Amino acid sequence: MSLLLISLLIIIFLLLRFFNCHRTKSVVLCITVLLTLLISTGVIPKYLLDKLQQDYAQKPTIQWQNNNAIIVLGAGLEKVDDHIDDTANKVNNIEPPFHAFGRIYEAAKLYNECIGEEQQCKIIVSGGDTHKLGTTEAVVYKQRLVKIGINSADIITEANSLNTWQNAQFTSEILSKGNFDNTVLVSSGLHIKRSQLYFEHFGVRATPIRADYMSAQVSWLPLGYNFALTDFALHEWIGFWRYDIYNMIGANQKRVDAGDA
Q1: Residues with Cβ < 8 Å from 122, sequence gap 6 or more?
Q2: CA-CA distance, 261 to 120, in Å (whole number)?
Q3: CA dist 142 to 69, 79, 220, Å?
Q4: Is 0.85 surpassed by the pTM of this model?
Q5: Which residues neighbour 74 within 8 Å (Cβ) at sequence distance 6 or greater?
Q6: Quick one: which of 181, 220, 206, 205 has its CA closest to 258?
Q7: pLDDT at 13
Q8: Could you give the CA distance from residue 261 to residue 180 in angstroms, rounded to a whole number?
């Protein structure tokens, strides 16, 4: 996304140069160079990421109640090389991506804390077949949770959502029927702010817990890594802007009072 913007500015610069728009060409060139430097040296991604994550840096202590729900949001799936098993059948090896394991670990840790206080606790795994792989994030993540010792009976799968908005919408329906006293929302650090906004829109008052934290590397030398971080952060900010625009034009589903779900 950031590289696309810079490429677009370069194209505009070349067009202005072709049409001899010298003053405007110089302005566009300066903007392009400055933007490239600010992104590659980490200044812009650090600012964007800090705004998304700084309120969630410290994880709050959860006051577990009688009946608790831990919501863990899907982060996609990865299809690893297919292989042939011992019965000569082709096996599709589908796994959570690397940035999903923090969410899975955090959900498992919270679950163990909850049952350690002898309270009832359910993990709600939310995520559908976002990459058309023939299985869902909810199913694959549940398998991982079971492998690390989580009771299968305490895992609820929400396997229809294809984005964060639907995560909130469909999970709120599960919560409204579950008579839960306490709800915890688990997602990645840069994603938790937008997730909380969407869940509150559907009436879910949850304690947000970040599973990880992503930092930009501020450096005198340009780093390609910072372009990727900028794109991750921009994806979240675009989600905020889209939410506000849809609210203004009435395109969002009607907001539900927090705590109603």
Answers
A1: 68, 69, 70, 154, 155, 156, 178, 180
A2: 19
A3: 15, 17, 43
A4: yes
A5: 100, 125, 126, 127, 128, 130, 136, 137, 138, 141, 161, 167
A6: 205
A7: 85
A8: 9
